[in-house]
Amino acid sequence: MKIATVLRNDDYSREVERELKEKLLGEDSPYCFVREEGETPDLVLSIGGDGTLLEAVHQYGFEPTYVGIHTGHLGFYADWRPNELDAFVQALKEQTKPFVAEYPTVSCRILTRDGRIIHKWALNELVIRNASLSTLVACVYINGDEFETFRGDGLIVSSPSGSTAYNKAVNGALVHPSIEAIQLSEIASINNQAYRTINSSLVLPKHHEVELIVMNPQIMIGLDREQAVWQDVCSITCRVGVDKVKFARYKRLTFWSRVRNSFITG
Ligand code: NAP
Q1: What's the rounded mean pLDDT across residues 105-126?
Q2: Is the dihedral of CA 157, 158, 160, 164 positive or negative?
């Protein structure tokens, strides 16, 4: 089995990687670690936080399976703590066919005013904001029908697993990752006598799409960890992505227990 590691840039994560390699390698070991850039691993170990996992999936894409080892608190994408390395190695050796949880992504088609089409995707979310502090203005269409004109700080289109991230901070709903859906949430919309938005998050099923027609000449687009200022974006169309990110589950840790651990029991 070919394994790759992606690390948070700190000494603790590097130490955990060193320990793991020591436990996994050795005479007659069925494991080897990817050395060359461009090699496709079977399994990617993300050692760090949920942010590190986001980095890993954008580096290696949809082919490998992923396991997260969290060097801070237990995360949404990470199942293991550094003090459980022996149990993880044992599970890896014993369970040749672990349960694989497949998490939906957000697929985005960005159309520029000069007619270019750029395809992007996110595991957590797409965020759009005006590039300056003034209001973002975007017309929202659902399945080709006009829905509303949004004025405010920004819009988030999140996946189910991204629903616990930025989306939660703006009071979006938490969506179980087995539900193939995207969620459109508002960031500080203007709602008064002149302007009106729905002011609730919308959860759209797999066969629906949301189109955001952008009125500002420059906007900021965030896709998971990546963010950039874009000029002359005409529209962004989002739907549930065809590709899913695969997580190898060597132990049972439910989504709702992760929610409870992260937000209630602390
Ligand atoms: P960051 O600003 O350094 O960290 C954002 C926090 O979000 C970290 O604590 C991270 O967990 C956590 N996180 C990431 N994915 C999550 C998920 N699916 N569910 C629950 N929490 C999650 O940024 P980053 O580490 O590069 O992560 C990028 C993410 O930050 C974006 O995708 C966005 O969702 C989130 N973000 C949130 C807000 C907000 O809540 N107001 C604002 C901007 C961005 P770890 O500590 O385990 O890495």
Answers
A1: 98
A2: negative
Identify the residue whose C-alpha is closest to ligand 1 atom 33. 166
d(CA 117, CA 89): 44
Minimum CA distance residue for ligand 1 atom 39: 166
For each of the domains in the chain, give its residue range(s) and CATH number, in order of start. 2-98+250-265 (3.40.50.10330), 104-242 (2.60.200.30)
Exposed (0-12), middle (13-18) or buried (19+): which is 206, by Cβ within 10 Å? middle
Q: How far is CA 9 from the centre of its chain?
A: 19
133-178, pLDDT tens digit by residue? 999 999 999 999 999 999 999 999 999 999 999 999 999 999 999 9
Type of residue at 62: F
Output the residue whose Cα is nearest ligand 1's atom 18: 162
pLDDT score recorded for residue 186: 98
Ligand 1 in contact with 103 (CB < 6 A)?
no
Tokens representing 180 are: 């193939």
Q: Is the CB of 55 under 6 A from ligand 1?
A: no
Looking at residues 171-191, what average pLDDT do you find? 98
Tell me if the pTM is above 0.70: yes
Q: Where are the alpha helices (DSSP H) in 34-152?
A: 50-60, 85-94
225 lines ligand 1 (CB under 6 A): yes
Q: Could you give the residue ranges of the DSSP H alpha helices within the chain?
A: 11-24, 50-60, 85-94, 166-169, 255-260
The answer to whether 224 is a known catalytic residue is no
Q: Is the pLDDT of residue 250 over 70?
A: yes
